[in-house]
Design a protein that fits this description.
- This protein has four helices and eleven strands, in the order βααβαβββββαββββ.
- By secondary structure, the protein is an alpha/beta fold.
- It has a single domain, classed as Purple Acid Phosphatase, chain A, domain 2.
- The strands form two sheets. A six-stranded mixed beta sheet has the order 5-6-7-8-10-9, with no helix packed on it.
- A hairpin with a 5-residue loop joins strand 5 and strand 6.
- The N and C termini lie close together (about 10 Å).
């Protein structure tokens, strides 16, 4: 049976200010501010060690639309490490880091594919002929309030069809604002093998077959974001 191996992450929120912790001693606070970078470095290290075929990033790479140069440099470095390990990356932008001209000041390596504002797909092909078609769209503004799942349609033959979506499942209560809403019953009928979700900061398994997963934020920033979360290794 044909298999693929990939890492799914979302909600990196690089350069998060860690609101509520600024009263800590400065040296400690500065260490905490670096936590999201260290977590991301550990994730790319694992991707390389596991020899994954590719990495999926389902939105909110940066914490703010005005992403800092520091955050962009750190993200570039990790993408470069993956490129050197011959690992491709497929990513979408979410409500925190939506696409906007002039915001991305550093050109990412060629192993990184960024989806634009329209739902589209690209084909990943392994050296042994395995194929995966990967679908997604990036936010073009902070507020995407319409259901975009009708635009996701498996196209042609591939061993696997994988969808990236940064949004909210409507039947579940959440502390997060509702963006790009969808219903689980809708997406599980569409013929995809896996839905790589982002936006919800807790790890949640909404469905097993097909897989519909939220990996959760890579670095908890307060008491509400405690517990197991981060990268998901799928194979």
């Amino acid at each position: 049976m044909t298999e693929i191996k990939f890492l799914h992450i979302a909600d990196l929120h690089l350069d998060s200010p860690f609101i509520g912790l600024k009263s800590l001693p400065r040296a400690i606070y500065e260490q905490i501010k670096e936590a999201s970078y260290r977590s991301f470095q550990a994730i790319t290290k694992r991707a390389i060690a596991e020899k994954v075929d590719f990495v999926l990033i389902s939105g909110d790479i940066y914490d703010k639309e005005d992403r800092s140069i520091k955050a962009q440099v750190q993200f570039y470095k990790e993408m470069k490490r993956l490129q050197e390990a011959e690992i491709d990356v497929f990513l979408i932008h979410g409500n925190h880091d939506f696409l906007e001209k002039g915001k991305d000041l550093i050109l990412l390596p060629e192993n990184v594919h960024t989806f634009d504002e329209k739902v589209s797909h690209v084909t990943w092909e392994g050296r042994d002929g395995r194929t995966s078609k990967i679908y997604g769209f990036s936010y073009g503004s902070r507020h995407i309030l319409e259901n975009r799942t009708a635009e996701y349609v498996p196209d042609g033959h591939a061993d696997f069809h994988i969808a990236l979506l940064h949004g909210s499942e409507l039947t579940k209560s959440s502390e997060h604002d509702v963006y790009a809403p969808f219903r689980l019953e809708e997406i599980t009928r569409k013929g995809f093998d896996y839905w790589a979700l982002g936006h919800i900061h807790k790890r949640e398994v909404l469905h097993e077959n097909p897989g519909v997963y939220y990996p959760g934020i890579i670095q908890g920033r307060n008491r509400k974001e405690s517990g197991g979360k981060g990268e998901l290794l799928l194979h």
